[in-house]
């Protein structure tokens, strides 16, 4: 992979996992990431390989076991919750609790790191919220209640909330898990547009491998043996994608550029 | 640019007017009937036909109405806080074990008195004595719940721990009751019925000051409470200090519920039901709207219950606790059957 001169996210010899009284459970180690801003990155790996753990570590939800994470050349530990909220926003995979918040109120919550103690929205805040609706094309949902939305609409609205937070980095954990093909493609196209047009750095963990290969600027592969980062072309030519599933059932077809089932 | 978040201004204006009217009705009702004109005159310190009427209004009915307002608002705010914190519609102001703690304190004072060889007519059994016993009891149980709360990470566990402490205290009370005399039991029962009257202006000042401190604390967590509606993880990602918010919520609830229970007994139902009632009226989850709304609705409900309890034109007063549940519960059931699900 080409050398990145000024990475927005950088990790050095990062080890991720969980430490408890019983001992240390390392999920993955030796992670070296150099990510340039304005990229759409897809994080791929099979279930249980540690995608969420990696995302949780670089978003400071849990501490690294070893090594460092640097965001915009600052060590992650130097960020407070509040300053990190201005740098990095999240779209989580968990379902929202039932609320009768309106969509507008939900998206407006994204402004919280910037508003005063009571959460007063200034003209500037209102403009950013409006722009977030426009960028995600969800203006028509503004007055609906969150619990009235379909899964596809809700995902877009949650992305709008992250946009309202106005952070250079957006991290999404399996945003298309509940969506059909149409809405999945819709979501990925939206993320691609946000990265390209608004210079957002977007990290998405996903199981939509075939789609990720077509749309991502960079891929992060978590395989049982190692962590590999690179562009789609690089990963294909190095045969790295076959490491993703150490299975005899499925393999990567270079000509089709997608995974196919092995017929025995 | 216009802020499209609904402000519900008209609903608020109507509610405040309703509150004022109910408040007047409440003061005008009682065992002695006083003409409305005389009531106004005594309130504004004018000439009254009978000086005793002024005394009744200023020293009995007005303090009781003010107590009802504080009790209703405070318990309802606490209930809302607990329901948001635990994301559980069954949570109320007493889930932290405050009422069971207060009951234990009073039970030990009244029912345990014979063990200590004290005389039941002594100073310890005055209003303030019971208030102190209730405060001590709820403080100790609350402290135990809080210590456990620091240890556990999961917010839901705090709810269960609170309930467990509740069962422990009620079984201790059962044991005490088993060994008590009939007159002691009766006195304890009277306390547990709850009461809004009997508070002097001095006691109301104490109640009101702590109420204001509690409400002031709550205004500082309106913003983080709103982001908590999306779950703790989202709240954290928006820069909210979840633990601090949780602790302020617990402290504000304890202050409000603790002081109210100390002075007026364990008043059931209001704290649990009023937030639901308010959400049906306002259909919002935004705490900037809900908190003042819940406070006003709580005051209205409490005043109505108190008006019913004093049984107009009779010299009897029914226990307030019976009224709150007897009249309140069917209303909530009716509302829920008519409307659909309540969202948080």
End-to-end Cα distance of chain A, whole Å, is 35 Å
Order of helices and strands of chain B: HHHHHHHHHHHHHHH
Number of beta-strand segments of chain A? 12
Q: Classify the secondary structure makeup of chain B into a structural class.
A: mainly alpha
GO cellular component, one term (chain B): plasma membrane
Keywords (chain B): Cell membrane, Membrane, Transmembrane, Transmembrane helix, Transport
Family (chain B): Belongs to the binding-protein-dependent transport system permease family. FecCD subfamily.
Transmembrane segments (chain B): 12-34, 62-82, 94-116, 128-150, 157-179, 199-222, 248-270, 290-309, 316-337
Structural account:
Chain B: GO terms for molecular function: transmembrane transporter activity. Chain B: InterPro entries: ABC_BtuC-like, ABC_transptr_permease_BtuC. Chain B: Keywords: Cell membrane, Membrane, Transmembrane, Transmembrane helix, Transport. The complex is a heterodimer of chains A (264) and B (344). In chain A, 30% of the residues lie in helices and 27% in strands. With 264 residues, chain A is of the alpha/beta class. Chain A has a six-stranded mixed sheet with strand order 6-7-8-3-9-10, sandwiched between helices. In chain A, strands 2-1-4-5 form a four-stranded antiparallel sheet, covered by helices on one side. Chain A has a two-stranded antiparallel sheet with strand order 11-12. In chain A, strand 11 (250-253) and strand 12 form a beta hairpin. The longest helix of chain A has 18 residues, at 181-198. The two termini of chain A are 35 Å apart. Chain B has helices at residues 9-28, 36-43, 51-86, 98-111, 113-116, 127-151, 155-178, 182-192, 201-220, 222-228, 232-237, 242-264, 270-282, 287-309, 320-338. In chain B, 74% of the residues lie in helices and 0% in strands. Chain B is built from 15 helices and no strands. Chain B has a domain at 1-92 and 201-212 and 269-344: Orthogonal Bundle (ABC transporter involved in vitamin B12 uptake, BtuC). The mean pLDDT of chain B is 86. The A-B interface holds A 59, 61, 80-86, 88-90, 92, 94, 96-102, 104-106, 108-110, 112-113, 115, 117-119, 121, 123, 126-127, 130, 142-143, 145, 147, 165 and B 1-6, 87, 219-220, 222-223, 226-227, 229-231, 233-234, 236-241, 279, 283-286, 288, 341, 343-344.
């Amino acid at each position: 992979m080409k050398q990145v001169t000024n990475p927005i996210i950088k990790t050095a010899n990062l080890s991720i996992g969980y430490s408890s009284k019983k001992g240390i459970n390392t999920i993955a180690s030796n992670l070296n990431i150099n990510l340039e801003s304005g990229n759409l990155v897809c994080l791929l790996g099979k279930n249980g390989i540690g995608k969420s753990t990696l995302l949780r570590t670089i978003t400071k939800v849990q501490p690294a076991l070893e090594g460092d994470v640097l965001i915009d050349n600052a060590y992650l530990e130097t960020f407070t919750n509040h300053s990190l909220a201005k740098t990095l926003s999240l779209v989580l995979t968990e379902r929202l609790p039932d609320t009768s918040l309106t969509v507008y109120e939900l998206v407006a919550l994204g402004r919280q790191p910037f508003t005063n103690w009571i959460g007063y929205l200034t003209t500037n805040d209102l403009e950013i919220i409006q722009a977030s609706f426009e960028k995600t094309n969800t203006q028509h949902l503004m007055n609906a209640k969150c619990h009235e939305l379909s899964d596809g609409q809700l995902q877009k609205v949650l992305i709008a909330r992250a946009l309202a937070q106005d952070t250079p980095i957006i991290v999404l954990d399996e945003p298309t898990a509940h969506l059909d093909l149409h809405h999945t493609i819709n979501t990925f196209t939206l993320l691609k547009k946000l990265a390209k047009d608004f210079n957002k750095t977007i990290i998405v963990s996903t199981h939509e491998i075939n789609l990720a290969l077509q749309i991502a600027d960079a891929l992060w592969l978590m395989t049982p043996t190692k962590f590999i980062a690179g562009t789609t072309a690089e990963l294909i030519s190095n045969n790295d994608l076959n490491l993703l599933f150490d299975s005899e059932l499925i393999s990567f077809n270079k000509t089709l550029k997608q995974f196919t089932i092995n017929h025995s | 640019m216009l802020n499209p978040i609904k402000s519900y201004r008209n609903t608020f204006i109507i509610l405040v007017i309703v509150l004022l009217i109910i408040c007047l009705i409440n003061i005008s009702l009682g065992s002695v009937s006083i003409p409305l004109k005389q009531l106004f005159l005594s309130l504004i310190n004018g000439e009254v036909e009978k000086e005793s009427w002024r005394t009744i209004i200023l020293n009995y009915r007005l303090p009781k109405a003010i107590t009802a307002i504080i009790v209703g608002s405070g318990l309802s705010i606490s209930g809302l806080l607990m329901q948001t914190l635990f994301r559980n519609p069954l949570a109320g102001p007493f889930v932290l074990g405050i009422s069971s703690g207060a009951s234990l304190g009073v039970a030990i004072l009244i029912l345990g008195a014979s063990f200590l060889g004290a005389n039941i007519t002594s100073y310890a059994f005055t209003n303030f004595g019971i208030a102190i016993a209730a405060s001590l009891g709820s403080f100790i149980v609350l402290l135990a719940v809080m210590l456990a709360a620091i240890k556990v990470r999961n917010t839901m566990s705090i709810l269960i721990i609170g309930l467990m402490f509740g069962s422990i205290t009620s079984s201790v009370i059962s044991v005490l009751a088993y060994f008590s005399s009939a007159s002691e039991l009766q006195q304890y029962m009277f306390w547990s019925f709850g009461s809004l009257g009997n508070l002097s202006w001095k006691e109301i000042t104490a109640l009101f000051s702590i109420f204001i401190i509690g409400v002031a604390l709550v205004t500082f967590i309106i913003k983080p409470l709103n982001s908590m509606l999306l779950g703790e993880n989202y709240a954290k990602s928006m820069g909210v200090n979840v633990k601090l918010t949780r602790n302020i919520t617990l402290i504000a609830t304890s202050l409000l519920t603790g002081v109210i229970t100390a002075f007026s007994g364990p008043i059931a139902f209001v704290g649990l039901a009023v937030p639901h009632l308010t959400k049906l009226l306002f259909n919002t989850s935004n705490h900037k709207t809900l908190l003042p709304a819940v406070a006003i609705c709580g005051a209205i409900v409490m005043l109505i219950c108190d008006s019913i309890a004093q049984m107009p034109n009779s010299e009897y007063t029914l226990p307030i606790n019976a009224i709150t549940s007897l009249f309140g519960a069917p209303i909530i059931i009716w509302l829920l059957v008519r409307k659909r699900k309540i969202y948080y």
